[in-house]
Amino acid sequence: MSITINKAFDFSQIKGVIFDLDGTLANSNPNFAGLRAELGIAPATDILSYVNSITEPTLAEQTQAIIQHYELESSHGATWIAGAPQLMAFLTSLHIPQAILTRNMPEAAHITLANLDLTIGVDFDPLLTRFDAKAKPHPEGVERICAQWQIKPANILFIGDYLFDLQTANNAGTKSILYTPSVIPDYAYQADIVCQCYLTLIDYLRSQLQT
After folding, report:
1. pLDDT digits (tens, 9 = 90+) for 146-179
2. What pLDDT is recorded for position 29?
3. Could you tell me the CA-to-CA distances from 106 to 33, 80, 112, 125, 154 in Å, in that order?
4. 182 near 27, Cβ under 8 Å?
5. Banded pLDDT at 48 (limits 50, 70, 90)
6. Could you give the CA distance from residue 165 to residue 163 in angstroms, rounded to a whole number?
C-alpha cells in the first residue's frame, strides 16, 4: 500500500505546505552512517546535538568542518525525488503557498535547490535552514513560516522523510506526511499519512477535493 492513513484530515482546510528538503524533495541526504562513523558517535546520535555539545573550540571547529564537507558533497549530486516536482506543481495549481525547512546549512541547501531548478520567491518561499531558526524538531521554523504566511499551524501540512519532521509537526501543531519509499520505520505511526509514492498521494489529495 503506497498510502497509509493513520489519522484522516480534510485537505481542503490545508492553506500552506512546508517541505523538508533532503530525502523529501531531493535525493541529497548526506551519508549519515559514514559521517557518524567518522565522528566516532553511535548510529542513533543526533549529529547537530552532538556538535552543539562540544565545548572544546578546536574539536568543535574540526567537527563542523567534517559535517559541512558531507553536506556539500551530497548537495552537489542532488536530484529530484520521483513525483516531488509533480506534487509541488499540484500545490501551485491550487495556489497553496509552499516553504522549505531544513536542518542543512544554507550553502548546501542553495546548491541542492539549484540542481532542482527551484527558485526562492518563485517556486516557494521562504527557505529556512538551521542557521535561520532552531533546528528541527524545535517548532520555531514552522512558527516563523506561519507568521509570515498569516496561517494557523492547524491549517499547515508538513511533509518530511524522518522522525525529526514528524516531531516538528507535532510540536508545532500541524498535519504531517511521512515520505518513506521503501522501509516503513517504527515511528511512522506519528504521521497523519505515510506515503511511499508522491503520485499516489496527489491522486488521494485530489480525490478529497472532489468529494
Report:
1. 999 999 999 999 999 999 999 999 999 999 999 9
2. 74
3. 22, 19, 10, 14, 28
4. no
5. confident
6. 5
- Is the pLDDT assigned to residue 1 strictly greater than 70? no
Q: What are phi and psi of 44, to 5 degrees?
A: -90, 0
> Are 97 and 16 in contact, with CB atoms under 8 Å apart?
yes
In this prediction the pTM is 0.90
Burial of residue 51 (CB within 10 Å: 0-12, 13-18, 19+) is middle
Residue with cell 572544546: 56
Check: CB of residue 156 under 8 Å from CB of residue 17.
yes
What is d(CA 70, CA 207) in angstroms, rounded to the nearest whole number? 40
Q: Tell me, what DSSP letter sits at residue 134?
A: P
* Extended strands (E) in the chain: 3-5, 16-19, 26-27, 79-80, 98-101, 127-128, 156-160, 175-179, 193-195
Task: In whole angstroms, give the CA distance from residue 77 to residue 95.
Answer: 30
Lookup: cell for 129: 535552514
Tally of CB atoms within 10 A around 119: 11
Q: Which residues of 128-152 are buried (b: 16+ CB within 10 A; e: fewer)?
A: bbbeebebbbbbbbbbbbbeebebe
Residue that the C-alpha cell 510540536 belongs to: 171
Percentage of the chain surpassing pLDDT 70?
99
